[in-house]
Fold this sequence. Notes:
The protein has 357 residues and is an all-alpha fold. The protein has helices spanning 2-29, 54-72, 78-104, 112-130, 157-179, 185-206, 227-248, 257-274, 281-284, 286-304, 316-322, 327-354, and strands at 145-147, 151-155. The mean pLDDT is 91.
Amino acid sequence: MRGVLYSAGFALVFTFAGTPAAIKILTRLGVGQQVRTDGVQAHLAKRGIPTMGGIVIVLATLLAYIATKLVTGQGPSASAVLVLLLMTAMGVVGGVDDLLKVFRGRSLGLRARAKFVGQWAAAIVFAVAALHFPNSHGYHPASAHISFYRDTALSIGPILFVLWAGFLIAGASNGVNLTDGADGLAAGACTMVFGAYVFIGVWQHGQSCAAVGPAGPPAGCYQVRDPLDLAIVAAAIMGSCFAFLWWNTAPVQIFLGDVGSLALGGALAGLAICTRTELLLALIGGLFVMNTVSVVLQVASFRYRGGKRIFKIAPLHHHFEVIGWSETTVVVRFWILCGLFVIAGITVFYAGWSTVQ
Length: 357
């Protein structure tokens, strides 16, 4: 259990130490934010502020996990390593997108098809690998069962599972990416959402079917491989996002960039898959779902209703900026919404456990 505290603490320190250095290096290299000219006009003043700050979060998370393992003397687990590799791979896709934006001097990086291929390639490798590496109890990092707050009886088989995992990973990474449009919004939301997965991992560890006592496994136990190690990963990401907010809130000094938002979304989906909370992710990460749905509705309305729009601009948080809310007001109110989604998700998770007691 102390590994969770070590992980969060290490990530916090590494991010606090690394972000100022990243700001200086990225500024010197000219890696500045590109802003849409057809977006929120107040954001045009942010053009040139260092981006790709998500590199710090990814590196701090990896270093915090390694440091935690060295301090506790425990080896890495298959589930945690797969989630970390997925996070890194999605960060690489986002990093290429960021660099293309900088080199081209505009807000468009990778073509949609190329980004789609990169996201799905990482997702497929993760999904296939997650169905392997059983532990001594026969538990794999993932299962072919659709899960809510635990696996359901519905098994879709390995092929459909890979497609399902790809959909979750692409959806979560794009959801965080769409939310990363206001100072501190995505990083603050991720702090809360990954905090929920710290709780879930710790709880599943305490109620694991692998913890067989004289009376047998506890009622309502979880057949999850490496839940505590997944909590350690979630704690590292939570701590890193929390520290990153020091420079990412208004007035913003560095942006996450796609390298950060895609990496965080990928890690979030990976944790949901490995903790068997795939459908619950839609509630815990409700803020990301809300922003994604607003974009889908906007595009569909524009395409099929003769150019008519539902919102002034999408994603949803930009709509409220355009109608007159200050950016800080939008961020704080959306953080509150995110907190409510997280509380609702944890409540449903706990209720699912308590009903079988």
